[in-house]
Write a structure and sequence with these properties.
alpha/beta, 10-stranded mixed β-sheet, globular, Alpha/beta hydrolase, Rossmann fold
């Protein structure tokens, strides 16, 4: 169950909306198996590397998985995002250059604005790319990044982490130090890391938050 908006905090760089979630009961679980979903993604090639695709909308979303996962692990989330009117690509190769290739593929199809969603190692790769090329992405949504970076752009950013995971402080620090007026921090109960969150009772609130952010900042 999502708690109400807890506070609006100003930092030296930008305001950060801090969201807190309360536990709905039950112990967090972890898994590295792929997520269930209603529709398997279409296998495609992005600059010679395998990837999966859902949807043909006019807003782009690139998904970068964690090290223990694969592109198919995003299936349930990708279906929900595509159903909201987006073109979704989950890359198998999570190197920054591969993520850039997926962005450029969508842009080459006329999709002007692309959001990046990453988890753990995938989040780190997105941060690396975004710090090299600020403004490349329309927005960032990052689950449990492992290290802070400098040089990010003003694009909206949502950082998600579980309160008791070892790298929770990274999301807090990034939310506080990153430029931009639309940065948000979502702190969850428990210790589930990155995509493991989707195997806990926080899966639905986190997916809902992702969908709301994508819809809110999608280009008209």
């Amino acid at each position: 169950m999502v708690d109400m908006l807890k506070s609006l905090r100003r930092t030296a760089m930008a305001p950060v909306v801090v969201l807190a979630l309360v536990s709905c009961g039950g112990s967090p679980q972890t898994t590295n198996s792929t997520s269930g979903g209603d529709s398997s993604g279409k296998s495609i090639s992005v600059a010679g590397a395998p990837a999966l695709r859902w949807g043909e909308g006019d807003y782009g979303v690139v998904l970068a998985h964690g090290a223990a996962f694969d592109a198919a692990s995003w299936e349930k989330q990708a279906v929900a995002i595509a159903d909201q009117g987006a073109s979704v690509i989950a890359v198998e190769n999570i190197d920054p250059d591969a993520i850039r290739d997926a962005i450029e593929l969508l842009q080459g199809e006329g999709v002007a604005d692309v959001a990046l969603v990453g988890a753990s190692a995938g989040a780190d790769a997105i941060l690396d790319l975004a710090s090299q090329d600020p403004g490349l992405a329309d927005q960032l949504i990052l689950l449990s990044p492992n290290a802070t970076v400098e040089g990010l752009g003003d694009e909206p950013k949502l950082f998600v982490a579980s309160k008791d995971e070892p790298v929770a402080h990274v999301s807090t620090e990034l939310a506080g130090s990153s430029p931009g007026e639309e940065n948000a921090l979502m702190i969850l109960p428990g210790s589930a890391h990155a995509q493991n969150i989707f195997a806990t009772d926080q899966a639905a609130p986190v997916l809902d938050a992702i969908l709301q952010r994508l819809k809110r900042f999608a280009a008209p």
